Description:
Elements: E1 8-10, E2 24-26, H1 28-33, E3 38-40, H2 45-48, E4 51-56, H3 62-70, E5 78-80, E6 92-94, E7 100-102, E8 125-130, H4 142-158, E9 164-167, H5 168-171, H6 185-193
Parallel strand pairs: 2-6, 4-8, 4-9, 5-8
Antiparallel strand pairs: 1-9, 3-7, 5-6
Helix pairs in contact: 4-6
Zinc ion binds at residues 55, 168, 176, 178.
Amino acid sequence: MADPTTFQFNLPRDRDWPRAPLSERTHDIAWAASGGCASLRGAPPAEAVRVMVIHATAGSSTAGAVSVMKQGRASFHWIVPCKDEKEHGAYVWATCAERLAAWHVRRSCAHPDICAGATNLNRLSLGIEIVNRQDGSDFFSPWQIEATAEIVRYAAGKYPNLAHVVSHARLDPDRRTDPGHNFPWTEFKAMVLD
Ligand SMILES: [Zn+2]
């Protein structure tokens, strides 16, 4: 069984990444809520963004994850709907402006293989939430994996310093297991890189 604390790959920067637009729609409720749960990066995003963090919601709906943003507790840049939601197969939701540092990784978290062990990774990262109960029996749909890979490819084309794609579990192994061992990291990596 895959260990989510090992999930990481790095993006080769010596290739032409696609500059195609993303199939995304702005989630108005989340976008408004992000005003209360996101920070300035302290540098232009084209310089600052170095890490893409992959999360799973441990819940069953987009609305549930967005409610956490409405409470001002956490935030993320995109959410990938699950197969029970009508947007599944069509588009992902943009939930926070990319220029802002969403609150999706604890400030103290660090890993020696990521940005030389830097902390405060929210300033340096983008975060994707994938709707999945993460209970061992809820499997990610093929479209969810493709849609997540598409976001990474879009960001690779947009942010020249984006170097690391990593699970939340790798950054915070004592407290987090997401996106969980059901997440097909090897296939996902191949979709991003091939
Ligand atoms: Zn997470």
